[in-house]
Amino acid sequence: MSKDILIKDGHIVDPSQDIDYVGDILIADGKIKETRTQNSKPRAQNSGLETIDAGGMFVFPGLVDMHTHLREPGFEHKETIRTGTLAAVHGGFTSVCPMPNTSPVNDNPTVTAFIIKKSLDEGFCHVYPIGAITKGQRGEEIAEMGLMYEAGCVAFSDDGRPVMSSIIMRRALEYSKRFNVPVISHCEDLPLADGGVMNEGGLSAMLGLKGIPSAAEEVMVARDILLAELTGGRLHIAHVSTQGSVRLIRQAKERGIPVTAETCPHYFSITEDAVKGYNTNAKVNPPLRTQRDVEAVREGLKDGTIDVIATDHAPHHLDEKLLEFDKAPSGISGLETALGLSLNLVGSGTLSLKQLIGKMTIVPARILNVDRGTLKPGSDADLVIVDMGKEFRVDAKRFVSLGRNTPFEGMSLKGMPVVTIVKGKIHR
Ligand code: DOR
User: Fold this and answer.
1) 312 catalytic per annotation
2) Domain for residue 363, yes or no?
3) pLDDT tens figures, 46-74
4) In this structure, are 281 and 161 located in the same domain?
5) Domains in the chain: how many in total?
6) What is the DSSP string of 240-270?
7) Which atom of ligand 1 is nearest to 161's Cα?
8) What CATH number is associated with residue 413?
9) Residue 80, pLDDT score
10) CA of 330 to the centre of ligand 1 (A)
11) Cα 150 to Cα 191: distance, rounded to the nearest angstrom
Protein backbone atom coordinates (compact mmCIF):
# COMPACT_ATOMS: atom_id res chain seq x y z
CA MET A 1 0.00 0.00 0.00
CA SER A 2 1.37 3.45 -0.87
CA LYS A 3 2.23 5.99 1.81
CA ASP A 4 -0.13 8.81 2.71
CA ILE A 5 1.03 12.09 1.22
CA LEU A 6 0.32 15.73 1.94
CA ILE A 7 1.06 18.17 -0.87
CA LYS A 8 1.28 21.56 0.74
CA ASP A 9 0.76 25.09 -0.52
CA GLY A 10 0.60 24.33 -4.24
CA HIS A 11 -1.42 26.39 -6.72
CA ILE A 12 -4.02 23.76 -7.61
CA VAL A 13 -5.73 23.97 -11.00
CA ASP A 14 -8.31 21.27 -11.66
CA PRO A 15 -10.73 22.18 -14.45
CA SER A 16 -12.92 19.14 -13.70
CA GLN A 17 -13.98 20.80 -10.44
CA ASP A 18 -13.34 24.39 -11.42
CA ILE A 19 -10.59 24.58 -8.77
CA ASP A 20 -8.03 27.36 -9.04
CA TYR A 21 -6.57 28.18 -5.64
CA VAL A 22 -3.52 27.79 -3.44
CA GLY A 23 -3.98 24.90 -1.05
CA ASP A 24 -3.21 21.37 0.04
CA ILE A 25 -4.01 17.92 -1.27
CA LEU A 26 -4.17 14.92 0.99
CA ILE A 27 -3.58 11.49 -0.51
CA ALA A 28 -4.46 8.32 1.39
CA ASP A 29 -4.20 4.74 0.12
CA GLY A 30 -3.32 5.96 -3.36
CA LYS A 31 -6.50 8.04 -3.62
CA ILE A 32 -7.26 11.73 -3.36
CA LYS A 33 -8.76 12.18 0.08
CA GLU A 34 -9.18 15.91 0.18
CA THR A 35 -8.35 19.13 -1.62
CA ARG A 36 -8.55 22.28 0.47
CA THR A 37 -7.65 25.94 0.29
CA GLN A 38 -4.79 27.34 2.31
CA ASN A 39 -7.23 29.32 4.43
CA SER A 40 -9.11 26.24 5.63
CA LYS A 41 -8.53 25.01 9.15
CA PRO A 42 -5.17 23.22 9.47
CA ARG A 43 -5.49 19.47 9.61
CA ALA A 44 -3.99 17.45 12.48
CA GLN A 45 -0.69 16.06 11.22
CA ASN A 46 -0.43 12.32 10.87
CA SER A 47 3.10 11.29 11.76
CA GLY A 48 3.40 8.71 8.96
CA LEU A 49 2.60 11.31 6.35
CA GLU A 50 5.08 12.21 3.63
CA THR A 51 4.90 15.95 3.03
CA ILE A 52 5.76 17.55 -0.29
CA ASP A 53 6.23 21.29 -0.23
CA ALA A 54 4.66 22.61 -3.43
CA GLY A 55 4.99 26.25 -2.42
CA GLY A 56 5.41 28.42 -5.50
CA MET A 57 4.51 25.50 -7.78
CA PHE A 58 1.39 24.44 -9.66
CA VAL A 59 -0.46 21.17 -9.13
CA PHE A 60 -2.55 19.72 -11.96
CA PRO A 61 -4.39 16.42 -12.40
CA GLY A 62 -2.05 13.96 -14.13
CA LEU A 63 -2.05 14.66 -17.86
CA VAL A 64 -3.94 12.27 -20.15
CA ASP A 65 -2.46 11.62 -23.59
CA MET A 66 -5.06 10.13 -25.90
CA HIS A 67 -2.58 9.61 -28.77
CA THR A 68 0.68 7.80 -28.00
CA HIS A 69 2.85 5.24 -29.77
CA LEU A 70 4.49 2.86 -27.30
CA ARG A 71 5.74 0.57 -30.11
CA GLU A 72 5.49 -2.65 -28.12
CA PRO A 73 4.93 -5.35 -29.30
CA GLY A 74 7.21 -5.48 -32.29
CA PHE A 75 9.23 -2.28 -32.44
CA GLU A 76 11.05 -2.39 -29.12
CA HIS A 77 14.13 -0.77 -30.72
CA LYS A 78 12.03 2.43 -30.98
CA GLU A 79 10.30 2.31 -27.58
CA THR A 80 8.92 -0.15 -25.07
CA ILE A 81 5.97 0.01 -22.73
CA ARG A 82 8.48 0.52 -19.92
CA THR A 83 10.45 3.37 -21.53
CA GLY A 84 7.39 5.01 -23.07
CA THR A 85 5.43 5.10 -19.81
CA LEU A 86 8.52 6.36 -17.97
CA ALA A 87 8.85 9.15 -20.55
CA ALA A 88 5.16 9.88 -19.98
CA VAL A 89 5.62 10.26 -16.25
CA HIS A 90 8.68 12.42 -16.87
CA GLY A 91 6.52 14.68 -19.01
CA GLY A 92 3.71 14.92 -16.42
CA PHE A 93 1.39 12.32 -18.00
CA THR A 94 -0.25 9.71 -15.82
CA SER A 95 -2.37 8.04 -18.53
CA VAL A 96 -1.49 7.24 -22.11
CA CYS A 97 -3.36 5.58 -24.97
CA PRO A 98 -1.14 3.56 -27.29
CA MET A 99 -2.14 3.42 -30.93
CA PRO A 100 -2.48 -0.01 -32.52
CA ASN A 101 0.24 0.23 -35.21
CA THR A 102 2.44 -2.31 -33.48
CA SER A 103 3.60 -5.68 -34.79
CA PRO A 104 1.38 -7.61 -34.52
CA VAL A 105 -1.21 -4.88 -34.89
CA ASN A 106 -3.53 -4.48 -31.90
CA ASP A 107 -6.51 -5.74 -33.87
CA ASN A 108 -7.59 -8.56 -31.55
CA PRO A 109 -8.14 -9.12 -27.82
CA THR A 110 -4.96 -11.17 -27.38
CA VAL A 111 -2.76 -8.23 -28.33
CA THR A 112 -4.90 -5.88 -26.23
CA ALA A 113 -4.52 -8.21 -23.23
CA PHE A 114 -0.75 -8.42 -23.80
CA ILE A 115 -0.41 -4.62 -23.76
CA ILE A 116 -2.52 -4.29 -20.64
CA LYS A 117 -0.67 -7.05 -18.78
CA LYS A 118 2.75 -5.72 -19.77
CA SER A 119 1.71 -2.22 -18.70
CA LEU A 120 0.57 -3.49 -15.31
CA ASP A 121 3.81 -5.47 -14.89
CA GLU A 122 6.33 -2.95 -16.22
CA GLY A 123 4.61 0.35 -16.87
CA PHE A 124 4.83 3.52 -14.83
CA CYS A 125 1.41 4.96 -15.62
CA HIS A 126 -2.08 3.94 -16.67
CA VAL A 127 -2.28 2.54 -20.19
CA TYR A 128 -5.51 2.46 -22.20
CA PRO A 129 -4.98 0.74 -25.54
CA ILE A 130 -6.65 1.88 -28.73
CA GLY A 131 -7.67 -1.00 -30.98
CA ALA A 132 -7.44 -1.09 -34.76
CA ILE A 133 -10.51 -0.34 -36.84
CA THR A 134 -9.58 -2.89 -39.46
CA LYS A 135 -7.74 -6.19 -39.43
CA GLY A 136 -4.02 -5.59 -39.82
CA GLN A 137 -4.88 -1.90 -40.37
CA ARG A 138 -5.30 -2.91 -43.98
CA GLY A 139 -8.55 -1.01 -44.34
CA GLU A 140 -10.38 -4.00 -45.80
CA GLU A 141 -12.27 -5.74 -43.03
CA ILE A 142 -13.52 -4.50 -39.63
CA ALA A 143 -11.44 -5.89 -36.74
CA GLU A 144 -12.86 -7.61 -33.66
CA MET A 145 -13.99 -4.35 -32.12
CA GLY A 146 -16.43 -5.86 -29.61
CA LEU A 147 -13.89 -8.32 -28.22
CA MET A 148 -11.19 -5.64 -28.06
CA TYR A 149 -13.59 -3.35 -26.22
CA GLU A 150 -14.25 -6.10 -23.70
CA ALA A 151 -10.50 -6.64 -23.36
CA GLY A 152 -9.99 -2.97 -22.47
CA CYS A 153 -9.68 -0.85 -25.63
CA VAL A 154 -11.13 2.62 -25.12
CA ALA A 155 -11.33 3.75 -28.77
CA PHE A 156 -10.63 2.50 -32.29
CA SER A 157 -8.26 3.89 -34.89
CA ASP A 158 -6.09 2.82 -37.79
CA ASP A 159 -3.75 5.68 -36.89
CA GLY A 160 -0.67 5.86 -39.06
CA ARG A 161 -2.91 4.78 -41.90
CA PRO A 162 -6.21 6.24 -43.05
CA VAL A 163 -9.32 4.13 -43.56
CA MET A 164 -9.65 4.82 -47.27
CA SER A 165 -12.90 2.92 -47.78
CA SER A 166 -15.93 5.06 -46.91
CA ILE A 167 -18.13 2.02 -46.38
CA ILE A 168 -15.66 0.54 -43.87
CA MET A 169 -15.54 3.86 -42.03
CA ARG A 170 -19.32 4.00 -42.02
CA ARG A 171 -19.51 0.49 -40.54
CA ALA A 172 -16.89 1.34 -37.91
CA LEU A 173 -18.84 4.42 -36.81
CA GLU A 174 -22.06 2.42 -36.70
CA TYR A 175 -20.52 -0.50 -34.82
CA SER A 176 -18.70 1.68 -32.29
CA LYS A 177 -22.02 3.16 -31.20
CA ARG A 178 -22.81 -0.08 -29.40
CA PHE A 179 -19.93 0.59 -27.03
CA ASN A 180 -20.22 4.39 -27.01
CA VAL A 181 -16.53 4.75 -27.88
CA PRO A 182 -14.99 7.15 -30.38
CA VAL A 183 -13.53 6.23 -33.73
CA ILE A 184 -10.31 8.20 -34.10
CA SER A 185 -9.61 9.14 -37.69
CA HIS A 186 -6.17 9.65 -39.17
CA CYS A 187 -7.37 11.88 -41.98
CA GLU A 188 -5.29 11.42 -45.11
CA ASP A 189 -6.44 10.80 -48.65
CA LEU A 190 -3.59 8.57 -49.81
CA PRO A 191 -3.94 9.06 -53.58
CA LEU A 192 -3.97 12.82 -53.02
CA ALA A 193 -1.02 12.67 -50.60
CA ASP A 194 0.64 10.74 -53.43
CA GLY A 195 3.72 9.68 -51.50
CA GLY A 196 4.52 13.23 -50.39
CA VAL A 197 6.90 13.75 -47.50
CA MET A 198 6.31 17.35 -46.39
CA ASN A 199 3.76 20.15 -46.76
CA GLU A 200 3.09 21.07 -50.40
CA GLY A 201 4.03 24.63 -51.28
CA GLY A 202 6.89 26.90 -52.23
CA LEU A 203 9.24 25.35 -49.70
CA SER A 204 8.69 21.78 -50.89
CA ALA A 205 9.36 22.95 -54.45
CA MET A 206 12.53 24.73 -53.33
CA LEU A 207 13.79 21.70 -51.41
CA GLY A 208 12.87 19.34 -54.25
CA LEU A 209 10.72 17.24 -51.90
CA LYS A 210 7.32 15.92 -52.85
CA GLY A 211 4.55 17.80 -51.08
CA ILE A 212 1.33 16.73 -49.40
CA PRO A 213 -1.45 19.28 -50.00
CA SER A 214 -3.65 20.44 -47.13
CA ALA A 215 -6.57 19.04 -49.10
CA ALA A 216 -5.26 15.50 -48.53
CA GLU A 217 -6.23 15.97 -44.87
CA GLU A 218 -9.30 18.12 -45.42
CA VAL A 219 -11.00 15.80 -47.92
CA MET A 220 -11.00 13.07 -45.29
CA VAL A 221 -12.05 15.39 -42.46
CA ALA A 222 -15.03 16.38 -44.62
CA ARG A 223 -15.86 12.76 -45.50
CA ASP A 224 -15.69 11.58 -41.92
CA ILE A 225 -17.84 14.46 -40.70
CA LEU A 226 -20.46 13.45 -43.27
CA LEU A 227 -20.24 9.85 -42.09
CA ALA A 228 -20.58 10.91 -38.45
CA GLU A 229 -23.68 12.85 -39.46
CA LEU A 230 -25.04 9.85 -41.34
CA THR A 231 -24.39 7.33 -38.58
CA GLY A 232 -24.51 9.33 -35.35
CA GLY A 233 -21.26 7.57 -34.39
CA ARG A 234 -18.71 9.42 -32.30
CA LEU A 235 -15.92 10.72 -34.52
CA HIS A 236 -12.64 12.07 -33.15
CA ILE A 237 -10.26 13.71 -35.62
CA ALA A 238 -6.60 13.02 -34.82
CA HIS A 239 -3.72 15.48 -35.21
CA VAL A 240 -5.43 18.43 -36.91
CA SER A 241 -2.84 20.39 -38.88
CA THR A 242 -4.58 22.69 -41.37
CA GLN A 243 -6.69 25.81 -41.45
CA GLY A 244 -9.25 24.06 -43.64
CA SER A 245 -9.66 21.17 -41.17
CA VAL A 246 -10.27 23.62 -38.33
CA ARG A 247 -12.92 25.36 -40.43
CA LEU A 248 -14.67 22.08 -41.33
CA ILE A 249 -14.71 20.88 -37.71
CA ARG A 250 -16.00 24.25 -36.51
CA GLN A 251 -18.88 24.11 -38.99
CA ALA A 252 -19.65 20.49 -38.07
CA LYS A 253 -19.84 21.36 -34.38
CA GLU A 254 -22.09 24.30 -35.13
CA ARG A 255 -24.41 21.86 -36.86
CA GLY A 256 -24.41 19.52 -33.85
CA ILE A 257 -22.54 16.64 -35.50
CA PRO A 258 -20.86 14.38 -32.90
CA VAL A 259 -17.25 15.27 -33.62
CA THR A 260 -14.31 16.05 -31.35
CA ALA A 261 -10.76 16.89 -32.39
CA GLU A 262 -7.20 17.01 -31.19
CA THR A 263 -4.03 18.70 -32.29
CA CYS A 264 -0.44 18.24 -31.14
CA PRO A 265 2.15 20.73 -29.86
CA HIS A 266 4.14 20.65 -33.11
CA TYR A 267 1.15 21.91 -35.10
CA PHE A 268 0.78 25.06 -33.02
CA SER A 269 4.48 25.65 -32.28
CA ILE A 270 6.47 25.39 -35.53
CA THR A 271 6.01 25.51 -39.28
CA GLU A 272 7.33 23.63 -42.30
CA ASP A 273 10.41 25.84 -42.02
CA ALA A 274 11.71 23.29 -39.50
CA VAL A 275 12.23 20.91 -42.44
CA LYS A 276 14.88 23.20 -43.98
CA GLY A 277 18.24 21.47 -44.08
CA TYR A 278 16.32 18.21 -44.67
CA ASN A 279 15.82 17.79 -40.95
CA THR A 280 14.20 14.37 -40.63
CA ASN A 281 13.30 15.13 -37.01
CA ALA A 282 10.76 17.56 -38.45
CA LYS A 283 9.26 14.89 -40.72
CA VAL A 284 5.86 13.99 -39.34
CA ASN A 285 2.51 12.90 -40.68
CA PRO A 286 0.46 15.02 -41.22
CA PRO A 287 3.32 17.35 -42.09
CA LEU A 288 4.20 20.63 -40.41
CA ARG A 289 2.33 23.36 -42.27
CA THR A 290 2.49 27.14 -42.68
CA GLN A 291 2.20 30.06 -40.27
CA ARG A 292 -1.38 30.56 -41.47
CA ASP A 293 -2.22 27.00 -40.40
CA VAL A 294 -0.43 27.39 -37.06
CA GLU A 295 -2.55 30.46 -36.35
CA ALA A 296 -5.75 28.68 -37.38
CA VAL A 297 -4.93 25.73 -35.11
CA ARG A 298 -4.36 28.15 -32.21
CA GLU A 299 -7.65 29.87 -33.01
CA GLY A 300 -9.34 26.45 -33.07
CA LEU A 301 -7.94 25.67 -29.63
CA LYS A 302 -9.07 29.04 -28.35
CA ASP A 303 -12.67 28.88 -29.57
CA GLY A 304 -13.13 25.23 -28.56
CA THR A 305 -13.17 23.76 -32.07
CA ILE A 306 -10.15 21.69 -31.04
CA ASP A 307 -10.98 19.94 -27.79
CA VAL A 308 -7.74 18.18 -26.91
CA ILE A 309 -3.97 18.54 -27.01
CA ALA A 310 -2.42 15.10 -27.54
CA THR A 311 1.23 14.30 -28.16
CA ASP A 312 1.21 11.80 -31.07
CA HIS A 313 4.42 10.67 -29.36
CA ALA A 314 6.03 8.77 -32.24
CA PRO A 315 9.50 7.61 -31.23
CA HIS A 316 11.85 6.32 -33.93
CA HIS A 317 15.38 4.95 -33.76
CA LEU A 318 18.23 7.30 -34.59
CA ASP A 319 19.39 5.02 -37.43
CA GLU A 320 15.97 5.33 -39.07
CA LYS A 321 15.90 9.12 -38.74
CA LEU A 322 19.42 9.25 -40.23
CA LEU A 323 18.05 7.99 -43.54
CA GLU A 324 17.56 10.51 -46.33
CA PHE A 325 14.44 12.65 -45.94
CA ASP A 326 12.31 10.68 -48.42
CA LYS A 327 13.00 7.40 -46.65
CA ALA A 328 13.06 8.38 -42.98
CA PRO A 329 9.95 7.46 -40.96
CA SER A 330 7.54 10.19 -39.87
CA GLY A 331 7.12 11.09 -36.23
CA ILE A 332 8.17 13.23 -33.30
CA SER A 333 9.03 12.04 -29.81
CA GLY A 334 6.64 14.26 -27.90
CA LEU A 335 5.91 13.15 -24.34
CA GLU A 336 8.74 15.07 -22.73
CA THR A 337 8.17 18.42 -24.44
CA ALA A 338 4.36 18.54 -24.68
CA LEU A 339 3.66 20.38 -21.45
CA GLY A 340 6.35 23.05 -21.91
CA LEU A 341 5.27 23.70 -25.51
CA SER A 342 1.60 23.80 -24.56
CA LEU A 343 2.21 26.23 -21.70
CA ASN A 344 3.42 28.68 -24.35
CA LEU A 345 -0.25 28.98 -25.33
CA VAL A 346 -0.92 30.45 -21.91
CA GLY A 347 2.08 32.77 -22.18
CA SER A 348 0.81 34.05 -25.54
CA GLY A 349 -2.73 34.60 -24.20
CA THR A 350 -4.25 31.98 -26.53
CA LEU A 351 -5.64 29.91 -23.65
CA SER A 352 -6.12 30.40 -19.94
CA LEU A 353 -4.21 27.95 -17.78
CA LYS A 354 -7.50 26.29 -16.84
CA GLN A 355 -8.49 25.86 -20.48
CA LEU A 356 -5.11 24.39 -21.34
CA ILE A 357 -5.07 21.92 -18.47
CA GLY A 358 -8.64 20.91 -19.32
CA LYS A 359 -7.56 20.02 -22.86
CA MET A 360 -4.80 17.82 -21.44
CA THR A 361 -6.76 16.15 -18.62
CA ILE A 362 -10.50 15.97 -18.13
CA VAL A 363 -11.52 16.60 -21.74
CA PRO A 364 -9.63 13.62 -23.23
CA ALA A 365 -10.67 11.50 -20.22
CA ARG A 366 -14.34 12.28 -20.92
CA ILE A 367 -14.01 11.60 -24.64
CA LEU A 368 -12.58 8.18 -23.78
CA ASN A 369 -14.97 7.51 -20.86
CA VAL A 370 -12.07 6.87 -18.50
CA ASP A 371 -12.08 7.92 -14.88
CA ARG A 372 -8.95 10.09 -15.08
CA GLY A 373 -7.95 13.72 -15.37
CA THR A 374 -9.45 14.86 -12.06
CA LEU A 375 -8.43 15.50 -8.46
CA LYS A 376 -11.91 14.70 -7.17
CA PRO A 377 -11.91 13.01 -3.75
CA GLY A 378 -12.08 9.26 -4.21
CA SER A 379 -10.24 9.21 -7.52
CA ASP A 380 -6.81 7.64 -7.95
CA ALA A 381 -4.11 10.08 -6.87
CA ASP A 382 -2.75 10.97 -10.32
CA LEU A 383 -1.21 14.41 -10.43
CA VAL A 384 1.73 16.47 -11.52
CA ILE A 385 3.57 19.24 -9.69
CA VAL A 386 5.03 21.77 -12.09
CA ASP A 387 7.63 24.44 -11.51
CA MET A 388 6.35 27.09 -13.91
CA GLY A 389 9.30 29.38 -13.37
CA LYS A 390 11.91 26.79 -14.22
CA GLU A 391 13.32 27.17 -17.67
CA PHE A 392 14.88 24.19 -19.38
CA ARG A 393 16.53 23.61 -22.71
CA VAL A 394 15.28 20.68 -24.76
CA ASP A 395 18.12 18.19 -24.84
CA ALA A 396 17.11 14.96 -26.53
CA LYS A 397 20.11 13.16 -25.07
CA ARG A 398 18.40 13.52 -21.71
CA PHE A 399 15.06 12.12 -22.87
CA VAL A 400 13.88 9.06 -21.02
CA SER A 401 12.12 7.93 -24.20
CA LEU A 402 14.23 5.83 -26.55
CA GLY A 403 13.05 8.18 -29.30
CA ARG A 404 15.30 11.21 -29.46
CA ASN A 405 13.62 12.50 -32.59
CA THR A 406 12.60 16.05 -31.76
CA PRO A 407 12.60 19.19 -33.90
CA PHE A 408 12.66 21.22 -30.65
CA GLU A 409 16.28 20.45 -29.75
CA GLY A 410 17.88 23.43 -28.00
CA MET A 411 14.59 25.28 -27.56
CA SER A 412 14.05 26.95 -24.22
CA LEU A 413 10.81 25.96 -22.47
CA LYS A 414 9.23 26.89 -19.19
CA GLY A 415 7.16 24.60 -17.00
CA MET A 416 9.07 21.62 -15.76
CA PRO A 417 7.20 18.71 -14.15
CA VAL A 418 9.13 18.14 -10.93
CA VAL A 419 7.02 15.43 -9.31
CA THR A 420 4.48 13.14 -10.95
CA ILE A 421 2.31 10.95 -8.78
CA VAL A 422 0.57 7.89 -10.23
CA LYS A 423 -1.97 6.16 -8.00
CA GLY A 424 -0.18 7.57 -4.97
CA LYS A 425 3.28 6.51 -6.15
CA ILE A 426 5.77 9.35 -6.30
CA HIS A 427 8.08 9.78 -9.31
CA ARG A 428 10.69 12.53 -9.11
O1 DOR B 1 4.18 11.04 -37.91
C2 DOR B 1 3.49 10.08 -37.59
N3 DOR B 1 4.05 9.01 -37.00
N4 DOR B 1 2.19 10.10 -37.88
C5 DOR B 1 1.42 9.01 -37.72
O6 DOR B 1 0.25 9.09 -37.99
C7 DOR B 1 2.02 7.75 -37.23
C8 DOR B 1 3.24 7.99 -36.45
C9 DOR B 1 4.08 6.75 -36.23
O10 DOR B 1 3.51 5.70 -35.88
O11 DOR B 1 5.30 6.83 -36.34
Assistant:
1) yes
2) yes
3) 667 899 999 999 999 999 999 999 999 99
4) yes
5) 2
6) ---HHHHHHHHHHHHTT--EEEEE-HHHHH-
7) 6
8) 2.30.40.10
9) 98
10) 6
11) 35
